[in-house]
């Protein structure tokens, strides 16, 4: 039985988990600075900084967010960036020009992402076909960003914690989860009281009032693009907290 109250990280390893960034480069810089300050104030033998996906869309500076994540990951291999459904849609639009993807992606924040790359999509242009928009995007999105999007992993596990963007499908072993579920699942996962054998740490379904703690999962998407609050969970041994602007705070348990 693994649940929130008893879950532990691997010995000596502190885990930082960051929710959906959605183009808020300002919030991301702020949280990464808080992590740096925490690590120098309270050194850890080892650590990981895990981003739960959805770097792009909705907020104003998706290009800046990807630039900062790529730079950070290049200098520190302990930064783990997972794949969100929005990152996947941007990737599929760029690499495959899928019309089914473009139709929803452009209305779910893709227009803002393209604007951050200097690609302006007029209100009626998207109804004229996506090919010209995609050509402009491919001319403006750096190769390093496309490579980053292509390589994003779906999930990671450390100790009793399993990290993925959306959640898992109950009844399916962790190593047999469908990628679509890991990036998209909501209801059946959010309502499940199943013991997954791990505590699932996820984003995707926003709760603007704060992290959502249940015995079998922790939801950390606090809708940063709209609220300006980007949640960073801190897990260390058996301890669970959140990194607030003024330091480490309590995470109320389930
Ligand atoms: Mn999201």
Overall 3D geometry?
globular
Helix vs. strand class: alpha/beta
The overall pLDDT, averaged over residues, is 95
Q: Which architecture per CATH?
A: 4-Layer Sandwich
Describe the secondary structure blueprint for this structure:
Blueprint: E1 13-18, H1 25-41, E2 46-51, H2 62-75, E3 79-81, H3 85-96, H4 99-105, H5 110-116, H6 131-140, H7 143-151, E4 155-158, E5 161-164, H8 179-184, H9 187-190, E6 199-202, E7 212-214, E8 217-219, H10 224-227, E9 232-236, E10 239-244, E11 247-250
Parallel strand pairs: 1-2, 2-3, 5-6, 6-8
Antiparallel strand pairs: 1-9, 4-5, 7-8, 9-10, 10-11
Manganese (II) ion binds at residues 20, 22, 54, 84, 86, 203-204, 221.
Walkthrough of the structure:
By secondary structure, the protein is α/β, with parallel strands linked by helices. The protein has one domain (13-250): Metallo-dependent phosphatases (Purple Acid Phosphatase, chain A, domain 2, 4-Layer Sandwich), CATH 3.60.21.10. It is built from ten helices and eleven strands. It has helices at 25-41, 62-75, 85-96, 99-105, 110-116, 131-140, 143-151, 179-184, 187-190, 224-227; strands at residues 13-18, 46-51, 79-81, 155-158, 161-164, 199-202, 212-214, 217-219, 232-236, 239-244, 247-250. The model has no long low-confidence stretch (mean pLDDT 95). The site of manganese (II) ion has 8 residues, from loops.
